[in-house]
Write a structure and sequence with these properties.
Blueprint: E1 24-35, H1 38-46, H2 54-67, H3 69-72, E2 81-91, E3 94-105, H4 110-128, E4 136-147, E5 150-154, H5 160-171, E6 175-176
Antiparallel strand pairs: 1-3, 1-4, 2-3, 2-6, 4-5
Length: 186
């Protein structure tokens, strides 16, 4: 079994010392899905959720959250992020959210990508909860992380049903939404 990097020789939690590592470009992507009811999905797509533009707000919340990762996760290093992208693809009463974080640093950005995608989903949940109590968030997972030009790891989830959900999402027709494509209520 590998030694845990966040545990010192006495078994105490500790921040990993990255001071000897050289700074390189790091990129990580994480994905997750939220399933909505037919009615809440329709309201989101029509721009009729009373709290406002759900997808635009989720994007901003995910970006803000990724920037705050070191304050939320005790042993994460604070990183100067070069870019954070939140992409949202909607179809079949669901939204698939992807967060990609990039930096030039001595450590990776996978936690930033995971925090960004999770908070984006939670924002969708919060904004729709008045009309949909049955929403489900699932398949939060790291997709890939790179160091320099090299893919350090590409990940597949460990749960068989998660893999099946990923296949279904990939097979269905999707429409990417952005702020300009959502009808605004007059």
């Amino acid at each position: 079994m590998s030694k845990l990097s966040h545990v010192d020789d006495q078994g105490r939690a500790s921040m990993v010392d990255v001071s000897e590592k050289s700074a390189t470009e790091r990129v990580a992507s994480a994905e997750a899905i939220i399933a909505l009811s037919e009615e809440s999905f329709r309201l989101v797509m029509a721009g009729e959720i009373k709290k406002g533009d759900v997808l635009a707000t989720a994007r901003i919340a995910g970006i803000q959250a990724a920037k705050q990762t070191a304050q939320l996760i005790p042993l994460c290093h604070p990183l100067a992020l070069g870019e954070i992208k939140i992409d949202i693809v909607t179809s079949n009463e669901s939204a698939e959210v992807k967060c990609t974080a990039q930096t030039v640093a001595q450590t990776g950005v996978e936690m930033e990508a995971l925090v960004g995608v999770t908070v984006a989903l939670l924002t969708i949940y919060d904004m729709c909860k008045a009309v949909d109590k049955g929403m489900q968030l699932y398949d939060v997972h790291l997709v890939e992380k790179t160091k320099g030009a090299v893919a350090v790891s590409q990940y597949e989830t460990h749960r068989p049903h998660a893999k099946e959900n990923q296949r279904r999402v990939a097979q269905r027709s999707t429409a990417t939404t952005n702020d300009s494509q959502i009808k605004r209520r007059s």
